[in-house]
Amino acid sequence: TQGNTEEKTRILCEKLQDIRVKFVRLVHRLGQSADNGIAAQVLYRFALAEQLKGGKMRNSTSGYDKACAVAMEEEASSRDEELDFCCTVLLLGKSGVGKSATVNSIFGKPMASTSAFSSGTNKVEVIDGTMKGIRMRVIDTPGLSASMADRRYNERVVASIKRCIRRNPPDIVLYVDRLDSQSKDAALMRYIGDRFGPAIWFNAIIVLTHGASSPPDGPDGFPLRYDSYVGQRTRMFQQTVRSAVGDTRLLNPVTLIENHPACRTNRAGERVLPNGMVWRPELLLLCFSARILAEANTYLKLPESMPLTRLCERRSGSPMPVLLASMLQARSEVQQPDEEEYGEVDPDEDEDGEAEFDQLPPFRRLLQDELDALDEDNRQSYFEELALREKLFKRKLWKTQCRRWREMKNRGVEDGEDEQQQHRDMAPGISPDFALPTSFSSDDPSHRYRYVDDASWNVRPVLDSRWDHENGFNSANLDRSFHLAKNIPVSVSGQIVMDKKEYHVTFDGSAAIKHGPNRVSTGGLDIQTVGRDVCYSLWGGTTFKNHECNKTLAGMGVTMVGENAVVGVRLEDKVVIGKRAKILMSGATSLTRGDKAYGAIMEATVVGPDYPVDRTNCTLGLSVMNWTAKDIAYGINLHSQIHLGGTAMVVRGNANNRGTGQISIKVNSTDRIQLALLGLLPVIRSL
């Protein structure tokens, strides 16, 4: 008897090992790795099921390693052969949501008829196809109606579907709906459960088409963030299914897809959603995982099948791109606010500008009646003279402030410490009330938004122009800059934003230690929320002043998101050319669990002749990033700020090799009111 038991255990192990090898080959052909969240969960369930069924049947680690080795050998020898595998998928949903278009996207070619103006499927169709040697059978069905008036139509469709699935039992059910549809359709989901049995929802995936659609406007009148919008729709569909089935434990996976031909693609030609996810391999991996788990359960014969709904648990994305972008970001040296503004300016460089303003003859501003009486040439001369005097006055005021700051600094640290002690000894007081925007409500809740005005810490609510008088302020800022010691400046800032469902936290803390006139060490801690996770970044570096016009920085950082940790190294060099131009070059690399990512950025900045009195400047940047083995992303960024008299214009633009980009132009003018007519262009275009 013991020999028969051992033989059965050995045969069971071999069958499970074959299924494990098959699954690893499926994952490889989809272009994924075994470290993928879904694949890792399936392989873990294999090991767990073996232990539950056979106790010490096999070492799970050695079984996994052997399966990977065998799978890679078989793929190398028979890459083009078809696998002994077939997955049957049943599509259900309303009419016009994109079921037939999803079939075409899954196979990568037209397999089902589609129409933009009518239902493309009039009868149940079984579509067989092969992708990368993987056979799939998709059952495309006519759309069901959510209206009770079409009950007879739904009954005919359900009867034809039942006849088809008797001959072709589905391994997985895809319930298809639209991401941008606001209907819940709980009655239709309940109807599907009544006709096919509630068990149909325990092995179903909710597929939302139009995944690249723009989020709608939120309660404040501005578009929602994409991840928040997707999260709301995901929770809504999952709750609707739970209500229709009557089981609060049910948590169906929700995946987004985009079938439009204009959808953004990567280099492999796979369509990419706005959040960067390549949706086709993700959807196919979910379907194949359900088929593999069902096949394994036929041998294990566990009392309860391992449900697919557990595969929808949220997976934390890799923090590698987050750290790489953070490492490439140019950080300014930690200084006091006055030092940041006046520290790099020599007030004695341009004394002629101050003398020129003092030597100007008296000037009287004209009244509006006197201005209207001037002809065009005299009016132009008047405005030119006014602009010149304003520029010279700003330059004189700037130099005076710079000279005053230098004198305060040369007085020594003792005076500064006494002044800081005086600030600390000042008693906090209640700040004045906010000038709240007008409201239709008769209530005046301004007393709710007072705050303590402390000289040491600056903590206050954020007044937003989109303020809602019922919800009030939902964010607050904190910042402080001070000297911990003589040569250790510290800067702390943070913001917290909370609403009824989500919260976002941003914290930046940094400090510097000056080792002399030519070397400064800087370090800090950054905290921010990434979805539902919290990202911690600890960074540090040392800046060396090689020459009056050259600085070099070397540093490293560590980022943690959930259980993932990434280590990065950064090198930066800044070259100043004259008084109006500088070039910044930065490169970084990050490493996590054997994966590497590289990035580089180069920026060139040119400022105006009157900078910083006149904030005219232009920055052009080029960036290259590579955090996968096959894909490289590069882009160009432009930021320009131009001041012409009473008109200020800010231009921002970016583009990348993925075929996306944007450009924004903001104009603020006090003497060219006619520019407001440009606001009519979007209205005219819409009409």
UniProtKB/TrEMBL annotation:
Residues 331-360, 411-439 are annotated as: Disordered. Residues 84-310 form the AIG1-type G domain. Residues 336-357 have a biased composition (Acidic residues). It is found in: Plastid, Chloroplast outer membrane. It is a single-pass membrane protein. Pfam families: AIG1, TOC159_MAD. Residues 411-426 have a biased composition (Basic and acidic residues). Its cofactor is Mg(2+). Signal peptide: none annotated. One of its GO terms (biological process) is protein import into chloroplast stroma. Keywords: Chloroplast, GTP-binding, Hydrolase, Magnesium, Membrane, Metal-binding, Nucleotide-binding, Plastid, Plastid outer membrane, Protein transport, Transmembrane, Transmembrane helix, Transport. GO terms for molecular function: GTP binding; GTPase activity; metal ion binding. GO terms for cellular component: chloroplast outer membrane. Its main location: plastid. GTPase involved in protein precursor import into chloroplasts. Seems to recognize chloroplast-destined precursor proteins and regulate their presentation to the translocation channel through GTP hydrolysis. Probably specialized in the import of nuclear encoded non-photosynthetic preproteins from the cytoplasm to the chloroplast. NCBIfam families: 3a0901s04IAP86 (TIGR00993). Belongs to the TRAFAC class TrmE-Era-EngA-EngB-Septin-like GTPase superfamily. AIG1/Toc34/Toc159-like paraseptin GTPase family. TOC159 subfamily. This is AIG1-type G domain-containing protein.
